[in-house]
Fold each of these.
Amino acid sequence: MKIEKLGIWAFRVIFVFLVSYGMLYFSYKYYSPDYGASDFYAYYKMVLHPLDFSVAPSPLIYRQFSTLVTALIFKMGIFYNMEISYVNEAINQRVFFAFILSNYIALALTALTIMKIIDIEIGKETMLAPLFGGVLAFLSFGTLVYVLTGLVEGWTWFFIALAFYAFKKQNIYLFAFILVVAIFQKEVVSIIFGVISFVFFVLDYLKDRKVNKTYLKFFAISFASFVLYLLLRKVFLPISGYENQLNLQSLIETFLNYSIFTSNKLFITIFSQNLFFIYILSFLLVFKYRKEEFKTFLALLSAWVLLYMIGMATDLGTNIGRILLVLSPLFAVYISFYIYLLENKSKE
């Protein structure tokens, strides 16, 4: 049995690599941070000066995990030398390659984690559904635009997938570890799981009139992680930059005055959410005979809506789409799982 499982996972790893390595090449060859990815230049300084909190503004400077991994790849001398489209004399091509490779590794790990979560949902290891879910991670609109780039989205996606795996396994210790490390990756992780765990807790209570202590612990950990992040920004290690994000009055005023009905915002924010729309469609098909899926649907939808509202309040503009796309790994899980259920249903 162990040999069989090892064979399945060896196949999955090889499959992910063979399906995706062309995207690594394409991104390295043609990606340019000059089009909608100016944060790259702050992250670039962070790679050259690891753990130096004076080289970039807040909140970018707190996203140390991704840049440390990139710095490690750069220091190890891993590099593929070839002519690329992006040319900037101020940017070391070796560091540029390290960014793309780091995010590629993170995305590949995300795909493998998605497969494992699908195994949990199905209740056994299968072949087609997990592979399809893993491939969907590479087919998200955000993959080439935001992940296989010089940003930090790759490891953010992985943190979200791994935290959801811990959530499904009800592994409090792994979940807590991920949420603590996520303080130095991206604050959105704690926000997402605060919402998901809260929705699960409330719906369980409304159904059984009992307090589910496990979901309560998940929520407490998520909330504590976000509070620690805020304390880091305001008290322990305050760095100037985007102070409006921590000003409640400013957030409310910006939210109330925000206008989403412009063609540019609508396209980048709404029409870029390809996996979100597929998830909605697949849920509507499954819900007719699996009402229990509503809890997960409401949790993911609530997280998506809250992220949208936060993006409006912080005036992220077209970057709201990038924030919403961090839920792509979770949508990939349930698209694949629901299609698996629909396929089995069609055989009855």
Amino acid sequence: MKSGGLFHRFRDSKYLFGTAAIAIVSWELVWLLSDGIGFFHSWAITGFILEKALSPEFWGSIFFTISLTLLGLVGGAAIAIGIGYALVNSPFLENSARGSLFFMRAIPSVAIIPLLLATIGSRLALVVSLVIWMVVTKLIFFVMRAIQDQKSSFTEQARLLQLEPWQLLFYVRVPSALGMIMTGVRLTVNRAYGAVVLAGLIAGTPGIGRDLYLARVNADYEAFLGFAVIAALVGVLFFWVFKEIESRTVRWRTVS
């Protein structure tokens, strides 16, 4: 068992080094195509990132970005579960709202930010509202599908036990739908994180997005590319963490 674990770690490390090598070669090819104008070598960007890693302000920026993403993700997930449950239990509401939900999900976050700026202003509430919007309009479809695909025997037994509606939701429907919901959360987290970074880039709210905004305004292309790489790495970390959470906490799937 131990040797198998070591083998998997060695294999994963080879994939990691291979991916890093491909990324570096691709980066240098782009540098050659750009003739070095407004673009920097990979080792220059690496040096910039290592230098920033020693700055408390840098980690504060990452902390703000991650905190706002998680706050909006939790709030959006709670709203999506509540609305999805209500829609599934009312065919009229579901048929009426489905078209509107598809339309709202198709709206890009960059189109929502000006509306939020006009109503909320450039505050942290703008970021949280944007993330909740992005999460709800995507995750709600996973919630509805998860509840609809549940075994009818579960709900029948719950009715025989005369459970209250809130007990039916939290003791039967949500646990049995958790697999699909966690998949939706994993696929939604990068959408939420991208909304936080985009809000900072456009509205100047705290986080990695504002660092990108300041670098662009000051025409500091090395800093802009460095923060872009940092933003990408944090996004990959988000996806990996939630994938691990899903695989370790949800070991079952509802069989339809």
Amino acid sequence: MKTLKWLKPTMTRIRLWSYVKKNKIKPPVFSVERGDFENLTRINSRGYDEVLSYKIQKIRPFWFVKSSNTKKQEILNIACTGGEKPLQSTRLGQALRSYYYKCGGSYDVDFERGIRKIRPDWCIPERWYMLQRQLLSMARAGRRRPSTATKLGNAFLRFTTPPDLVKRERIRTYNPVFKCKIKKARPDWLKIVHWKDGKKIIRVV
């Protein structure tokens, strides 16, 4: 491992930092690395390292969110590993809503900030998320892009067209994360073909 000037050369610090760089999930309870983490990042701990704690918090903010129950930890694990957002019709989706929204009974400001930072694609209305899941499913299955004359096709344009190309009231719907997923699965979907004065015009959104 490359020597870092700010990292004090002790076995526990090097071991923890190495784990942080290689893993997105917080060390499991009772593991050696979890003990290192608790000892080096808790302010009231004898081994507290302010610099190391700050460095870890910058790249693994979710590790510092207080997990009061297993549901919150499940949600954090899904978010960190790139999983799909739990829908509100599920127990985890209901829990997510409770932790994320200020009107929720268990609102957690640190949890909300963490979600916004690493999973901005989760921070949209449920109905938009469902439409995006449907569109991604169609794209990955090799189906044709829905016509822009349909509700689904129009939604696709709103999600993938940059703000500078649409009217001001549509800016909120643009989702760069969704667009990247579509580009990876079906780049041809981003080519909009239309005719003008008898000429075929291809526009890439």
